[in-house]
Amino acid sequence: MKIGIVCYPTFGGSGVVATELGKGLAKNGHEVHFITYSQPTRLDFFNENLFYHEVNIRSYPLFKYPPYELALASKMVDVVKFEKLDLLHVHYAIPHASAAVMAKQILKSEGIEIPVVTTLHGTDITLVGKDPSYEPVVTFSINQSDGVTAVSEDLKKDTYKHFNITREIKVIPNFIDLEKFQRLRKDHFKTAICPNGEKLIVHTSNFRKVKRVDDVVRIFNEVSKTVPARLLLVGDGPERGHIESLCRELGIYDEVRFLGKLEAVEEVLSVADLFVMPSEKESFGLAALEAMACQVPVISSNAGGIPELNIDGVTGYTSKIGDIEEMTQNALHILSEDNLETFKQNALEHAKQFDIEKILPMYEEFYREVSEAVLSAAQQ
Ligand code: GMT
């Protein structure tokens, strides 16, 4: 098939999923056209089936807010027509789904039928989407898409709860490339970070408030009173300054390293003993899956879809949001010499359920179903 993929090209989870999906589809012989405002971060290799089309936003003194959605819709029309695409797959509802629905209507007026698949990722529903300033448009564009997927059962439930949705939503979870995310031997790195055999705790996120990075620091502070440990914080975002101040206040700044935005996260995860994800909201928790694939057990909140990934008492533990005390006790339990190896193996075993080799065919099958339905409706 010839597939157009629209996503946020930056470091967010939805952009990573969209880019890895496109790369996987291209390897399977599909022609994939990314339509974004800049080159997706993970679109880092050449493949004859991969194409990139940049959305150019013309500004004008009259525009206080340049109309990105219109530029995107126009670009989608252009690419569908001239590359003869079979399907558009947009990731993150705002504003990608509404722009795709507009492009679909424009193309229909010219006699071209283009099936639109929308994937809901999380905050497009649970945080931003349900805000009254966007809700009517999000509801309309979900209902007008030809196929809709959500990354967890919990996100599907939340979408039905907060929006008046009249169509079926299919759950297709996040996935992982187990060849890329595997425990590598990085002993020199571990020795450099933990010279005295300390346990290594890792958190990766975009440092937004919903990630509750201060809980990570407080849990680490408590754990390190019992078990010598180091904390690596990967990523960057609005909360970073506040988190640095908190580390200074707690007197643990020397035990914590801020690594910023890293490309090769799997190298850090390869030497980690524990991953912490105490999020307020998390539709799936791709960062935790990446950790599990590298044999790292997870201490997390029970927010959103996390319990579908982190199995309580097996791959790690889940606790109520903000229950730092329980998360600390669970972290100490996992880190004890008697338990660590079992949790590591369990984490890897469960991660295998989300192998890209298993999940990618679910998207391919869904594309076929949606395309057939659209084409047969058009013929009637
Ligand atoms: O919050 C993020 O990490 C970014 C956000 C995004 O859309 O870019 O991630 C969401 O989508 C990911 C991929 O489907 C999910 O794994 C994350 O759980 C989800 N984040 C939230 O729901 C907060």
From TrEMBL:
Residues 11-180 form the Glycosyltransferase subfamily 4-like N-terminal domain. GO terms for biological process: bacillithiol biosynthetic process. Residues 194-346 form the Glycosyl transferase family domain. Gene3D superfamilies: Glycogen Phosphorylase B. InterPro entries: Glyco_trans_1 (IPR001296), Glyco_trans_4-like_N (IPR028098), Glycosyltransferase_grp1 (IPR050194), Thiol_BshA (IPR023881). Signal peptide: none annotated. One of its GO terms (molecular function) is glycosyltransferase activity. Pfam families: Glyco_transf_4 (PF13439), Glycos_transf_1 (PF00534). PANTHER family: SULFOQUINOVOSYL TRANSFERASE SQD2. This is N-acetyl-alpha-D-glucosaminyl L-malate synthase BshA. The lineage of its organism: Bacteria, Pseudomonadati, Bacteroidota, Cytophagia, Cytophagales.
